[in-house]
Amino acid sequence: MKQVQEYLLADAEVASLKWSKLWETRADRTRLLLVAYMGFVTQMCGNALISYYLTIILDTIGIKDTLHQTLVNGILQIYNFVIAISGALMVERVGRRRLWLFAISIMLISFILWTICSALFAQSGNSNHALAVSVLVFIFAFQLGYAFGITPLAFSYPAEILPFHARQKAMGLLIMCQNAALIYNNMVNPIAIDAIGWKYYLVFIAVLAQWLVVAYLFFPETKGYSLEELSDLFNRPIMQLRNHPQFLVQEVQVDEDNKNTTIVTQHIES
């Protein structure tokens, strides 16, 4: 009961903090920038294209029958559900950083191949059935990466890298950035696909490529580390974020008679 009361008091104190507290230190600014970036990029990587405009994509590869479009969409949703559960179960086993890099790599490779097949299909006069099927395969491959890695991490990972005092407002910023990206997707995607077709996919390939670089350089591993340990990591130069946190461990010898303590050995653990 005491812990619950302490948490409620701390939560009330956090709610009254000013927004300026979110960027007081360099570590705070780094975390806030990463959270805003993740909110934006998780909705600008091409997933919204599939979620909201799958029927338009299917139209571009000759699948225009309503029954077939509904069937593809239904299978894709069930597939996403199963893959997302599998990914959530793997987060604690493989770690967050590896899951990020695996998922983004799968999405990038799939989107490149999807774009190539779409371009070849258009050049064939929309008559090559094998290329249309290939596009479908790579759409499912893209969703494998997104559902397996991004779905479990999109909210849990930002919360893990944030200190307690910043979590409430920073997660609100994350959602605002996601909504800003969704506004773009809803307004621009259908017009762009109709105007330039597969060439518009190059935008998402560029987004995925830079996301892979950013994730490799700046997404630290959070598995097995406390908030205090992660705070120490964010206090270091930004280019060291991809390294595992390392901490000084001291082995102390206590003299019971004189009540003195002596450091016997000290070493670094990661």
TrEMBL record:
Superkingdom of this protein's organism: Eukaryota
SUPFAM superfamilies given in the database record: MFS general substrate transporter
GO (cellular component) term, any one: membrane
Residue intervals of the Major facilitator superfamily (MFS) profile domain: 32-270
GO molecular function: carbohydrate:proton symporter activity
Keywords attached to this entry: Membrane, Transmembrane, Transmembrane helix
PANTHER family reported for this sequence: MAJOR FACILITATOR SUPERFAMILY (MFS) PROFILE DOMAIN-CONTAINING PROTEIN, PLASTIDIC GLUCOSE TRANSPORTER 4
Protein's recorded name: Major facilitator superfamily (MFS) profile domain-containing protein
Organism (species): Pleurostoma richardsiae
